[in-house]
């Protein structure tokens, strides 16, 4: 049976962290056997917000290396860099004629970015969802693993595809946002303020590139409190977050011990000691990230290997992309 096509992109702005790992990359790894996967580094997209490109190449290489270190197999999936696939840019051009200024201006992410960078409201920013639609439609993907914040973009991609099909003939399948439902876990920032994110409080974000010592320091500083006032209390979200992390990187027994301690009390005094819990979590997290960091560094430092991997990924991506473009040019009537 033909496998369904999956596309997803990661912007190379900043270092990848545990939120990316548990929210996205682990899903990718899981999808690579079931689906025909196209995963790429969205370096064109990053130009809409990061015109300074001094760090860009390095970041692109790091994202490729970290994805492989996390378990993506470049033999199974197409792992590539967006700018290596010029077919995307051509489809972007066609889709731009099907995208209306009004709907682009109403996009939530556009309005956010206008607020964040009022001095640089460029047309690329406005048409960010069109480029994203081109990324997806060029591979005729039907499933797109993305978080909640990207669902509006996917809806727009469906609209553009639908308009294309109406105007030029049924060519493009409609793509849908996809994840493994309730198994998706959310990682909060260690200071208890919002999601773990690339740019906010770095001391409260654990990066895949962090040293063992950095990981320990950050976890020991994570927000806690006096402990539960009575047995079987509801966990505040910053405490739940520590338990969530522990459930992913520690042994079942260790997790259960702290869970039991949290729920118990002795003569009205709570038993759990968050200092001990964080020490244990810090060790287990350091052990968990250590091999990923080492593997990513080894790949990133091997320029020959990296170039070979990116070339191989681009070839796979362009194979299907050029097929799509041929169909599209024909549908529009550009095959002179
Ligand atoms: N916009 C996505 C994000 O910020 C990244 C992205 C670009 C993407 N192109 C894509 C995701 C295509 C899925 C499919 O996270």
Write down the CATH topology of the largest domain.
Answer: Rossmann fold
- Radius of gyration, in angstroms, nearest whole number: 22 Å
Please state roughly what percent of the residues sit in beta strands, choosing from under 5%, 5-15%, 15-25%, 25-35%, 35-45% or over 45%: 5-15%
Order of SSEs, N→C? EHEHHEHHHHHEHEHHHEEHH
| Secondary structure category | mainly alpha
Spatial sequence of strands, sheet with the most strands: 1-2-3
CATH class (first level) name of the largest domain: Alpha Beta
Task: Explain this structure.
- This protein is mainly alpha-helical and 336 residues long.
- The chain has 2 domains: 5-185 and 302-332, Rossmann fold, CATH 3.40.50; 210-296, Tyrosyl-Transfer RNA Synthetase.
- The chain is 55% helix and 8% strand.
- The chain has 14 helices and 7 strands.
- It has helices spanning 18-34, 43-47, 56-69, 86-96, 101-105, 108-116, 123-126, 128-137, 151-168, 212-220, 237-249, 252-263, 274-300, 303-332, and strands at 5-10, 36-41, 78-81, 143-145, 176-178, 265-266, 269-270.
- A 3-stranded parallel β-sheet has the order 1-2-3. It has a two-stranded parallel ribbon with strand order 4-5. Strands 6-7 form a two-stranded antiparallel ribbon.
- α3 packs across α13 and α4 (86-96) runs parallel beside α14.
- The longest helix has 30 residues, at 303-332.
- The chain is elongated and about 85 Å long.
- It starts with a strand and ends with a helix.
- The structure holds tryptophan (TRP).
- Residues 7-9, 11, 42, 45, 132, 135-136, 144, 146, 150 line the site of tryptophan.
């Amino acid at each position: 049976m033909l496998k369904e096509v999956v596309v997803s992109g990661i912007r190379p702005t900043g270092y990848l962290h545990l939120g990316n790992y548990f929210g996205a990359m682990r899903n990718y790894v899981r999808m690579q056997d079931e689906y025909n996967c196209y995963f790429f580094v969205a370096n064109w997209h990053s130009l809409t917000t990061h015109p300074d490109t001094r760090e860009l190449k390095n970041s692109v290489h790091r994202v490729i290396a970290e994805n492989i270190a996390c378990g993506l197999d470049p033999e199974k999936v197409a792992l590539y860099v967006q700018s290596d696939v010029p077919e995307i840019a051509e489809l972007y051009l066609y889709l731009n004629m099907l995208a209306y200024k009004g709907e682009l201006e109403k996009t939530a992410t556009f309005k956010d970015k206008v607020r964040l960078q009022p001095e640089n409201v460029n047309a690329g920013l406005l048409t960010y969802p069109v480029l994203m639609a081109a990324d997806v439609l060029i591979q005729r993907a039907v499933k797109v693993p993305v978080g909640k914040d990207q669902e509006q973009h996917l809806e727009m991609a469906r609209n553009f595809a639908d308009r294309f099909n109406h105007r030029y003939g049924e060519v493009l399948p409609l793509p849908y946002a996809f994840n493994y439902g309730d198994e998706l876990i959310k990682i909060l920032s260690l200071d208890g303020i919002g999601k773990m994110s690339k740019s906010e409080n770095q001391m409260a974000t654990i990066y895949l590139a962090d040293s063992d010592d950095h990981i320990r320091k950050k976890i020991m500083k994570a927000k806690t409190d006096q402990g539960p006032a009575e047995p079987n209390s509801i966990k505040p979200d910053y405490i739940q977050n520590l338990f969530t992390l522990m459930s992913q990187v520690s042994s079942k027994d260790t997790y259960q011990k702290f869970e039991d301690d949290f729920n118990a009390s002795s003569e009205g005094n709570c038993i759990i000691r968050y200092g001990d819990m964080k020490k244990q979590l810090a060790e287990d997290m350091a052990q968990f990230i250590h091999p990923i960091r080492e593997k990513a560094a080894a790949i990133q430092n091997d320029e020959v290997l990296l170039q070979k991997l990116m070339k191989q990924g681009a070839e796979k991506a362009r194979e299907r992309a050029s097929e799509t473009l041929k169909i599209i040019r024909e549908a529009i009537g550009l095959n002179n």
